[in-house]
Structures are given as C-alpha cells and as structure tokens.
Amino acid sequence: MMLCPWCNQEMEAGFLMSGKPVVFGPEEREAMLWPRKKGEIKLTRQFWTIARTPAWHCAGCKRVVAEYE
Ligand SMILES: [Zn+2]
C-alpha cells in the first residue's frame, strides 16, 4: 500500500502508460528530439507498442507518482 506523500490518503496502484517514451527533465522542451539533455531521465520501459512504468495515483490531489528502473 502506498500513501500519498502530499495528503496521506491511500493511492491506487497502476501504470503510467504512453505510446512514446516518457521523460522527466528539469526544463521544459519545445520538442522531444534526441539526444537526451543533461538531467533528463527516461521513466518508462518500452514493451512492443507501449511504454510503461509502475505508478500510483491519488484521486484526492490528482497526482501520479511513478517508479522507474
Ligand atoms: Zn494526495
């Protein structure tokens, strides 16, 4: 069980999913062209046509926490 780090309510376990890789970065980008920039982390793993990673959702504060690697 995962508790939301903001509101302390129980979070729903699931997956963060996308048709393309999902990247966290310290700065906003206009386009996702490789190579990866400094500080950027690929959060998802590619499984055939879907990119995904385990994640938890809080409906109370509308936030998602994801786990990578
Ligand atoms: Zn919350």
First-last Cα distance: 20 Å
Q: What bound compounds does this protein have?
A: zinc ion
Report strand %.
35-45%
Class from helix and strand fractions:
mainly beta
Total count of helical runs of at least 4 residues: 0
Major β-sheet, in short? 4 strands, antiparallel
SSE pattern, N- to C-terminal:
EEEEEE
What does it look like?
This protein is mainly β. 0% of the residues lie in helices and 39% in strands. The structure holds zinc ion. The site of zinc ion has 8 residues, from loops.
Short description:
The chain has strands at 12-18, 23-24, 41-42, 45-47, 50-58, 63-66. The protein is mostly beta strands and 69 residues long.
Any chance you could write out the topology, listing elements then pairs?
Layout: E1 12-18, E2 23-24, E3 41-42, E4 45-47, E5 50-58, E6 63-66
Antiparallel strand pairs: 1-5, 2-3, 4-5, 5-6
The structure holds zinc ion.
Descriptors for this entry?
0% helix, 69 residues, single chain, binds zinc ion, two-stranded antiparallel ribbon, mainly beta, 4-stranded antiparallel β-sheet
